[in-house]
Each structure stands twice: as structure tokens, then as C-alpha cells.
Write a structure and sequence with these properties.
There is one protein chain. This protein is an alpha/beta fold. It has one domain: Rossmann fold. Helices cover 38% and strands 17% of the residues.
Length: 180
């Protein structure tokens, strides 16, 4: 089913029709590593948008666990069955990237009230800088509401098993990274 909207006015004339619009959404993040919570948001976002761009943030201020190429490969493999997904990367301001990609929505996940405050502030700033791009908040599914990439990395560094929280291919990469 497409998320496209085509509605006519009550009189049946074409003068009252809304133009057909395409919803292009960006789901940004570091995805270091990709979690089942991320995958849930991607799957749900792909049902809402005509085209969903999973955008990996290249942050030169942080030292990621996985390279950009590795994160791209993990996301690409885990989302291969979704036909309206594009995996990309960006650096700099998200709203400038959204303008380059002609995106009209930014998808953000909310796990807890603590996420909401920071996400709201960012959404308001983004709206001020680029009003034509809306932020859409999706509540995390209950079973993923406690999962974060930071916690996954902490569990793995302490020798714990994270296989129930990440895709199998990601769990294998994590084991390989920490078995050296």
C-alpha cells in the first residue's frame, strides 16, 4: 500500500484535488551498532514513507566501534527485503542533508521521556532552519524501549551476550571485534 494521498473535493470536480505528494523521510543515526530497535523503526518508517533514507551520521568528533563501511553493510544486509529503503551517510547539519535529498520528513524514535526532551529541542531547531521538513516521532516498540547502541557496546565489552538485541549478523561482527 502506498502512502500517497489523492483526494478529490466533495463536488467531484478536479479543481479541488490535492496534488499527489511523495513522502521522503530520513531516519538518521550513528547505528554503531545497528540494533533490533533500529530495525523496528526502519520497518515501521518504510511503511509510512514512499522512500526512507537510513542516513548514517559521519561524526568526526567520535571514534566509532564500526567503520562507516561496516555500518553501511550491516544496515544494507538487515534491510534487504525492504524495497523503499536507501542507505546513505552524511556529515554536517541534518536539515542541509534533508534539503539535498528533497526529504520532507525526519523520522525519530522515542524510547522514554528522557529522549523526548532532547528530540523536541532538535526538532524545533530543525523546523526553524528548514520549515518544509517535519519531524515525525515514533514511539519505540515496548520490547525495544530499553535498547541503545551505547548499552549494547557496554554489554559486549563486559563479555555479555547481545544476540537477542541485535541482528545475528551484527552479533557475529561484535563477537569478532571483541574476541581479538
Amino acid at each position: 500500500m502506498s502512502a500517497r494521498l489523492k483526494v478529490s473535493n466533495m463536488s467531484g470536480t478536479s479543481a479541488g484535488r490535492f496534488p499527489e505528494r511523495r513522502l521522503v523521510a530520513i531516519y538518521p543515526g550513528s547505528f554503531d551498532p545497528l540494533t533490533n530497535g533500529h530495525l523496528d523503526m526502519i520497518a515501521r518508517g518504510s511503511r509510512l514513507a514512499d522512500h526512507l533514507i537510513v542516513a548514517i551520521l559521519r561524526n568526526t568528533q567520535k571514534q566509532p566501534l564500526f567503520s562507516l563501511e561496516e555500518r553501511f553493510e550491516m544496515i544494507d544486509a538487515a534491510t534487504s527485503t525492504l524495497t523503499n529503503i536507501e542507505v546513505d551517510s552524511f556529515e554536517g547539519l541534518l536539515v542541509e542533508y534533508a534539503a539535498r535529498k528533497s526529504a520532507n520528513a525526519i523520522l525519530r524514535g522515542i524510547r522514554a521521556v528522557s529522549d523526548y526532551e532532547a528530540e523536541l529541542q532538535m526538532a524545533l531547531l530543525n523546523r526553524r532552519m528548514r520549515p518544509e521538513t517535519e519531524t515525525v516521532f515514533l514511539m519505540a516498540a515496548e520490547e525495544y524501549s530499553f535498547i541503545s547502541s551505547r548499552i549494547i557496546k557496554e554489554i559486549v565489552t563486559l563479555g555479555g551476550d547481545v544476540s537477542q538485541f541485535v541482528p545475528a549478523s551484527v552479533a557475529a561482527r561484535l563477537r569478532a571485534k571483541f574476541s581479538r
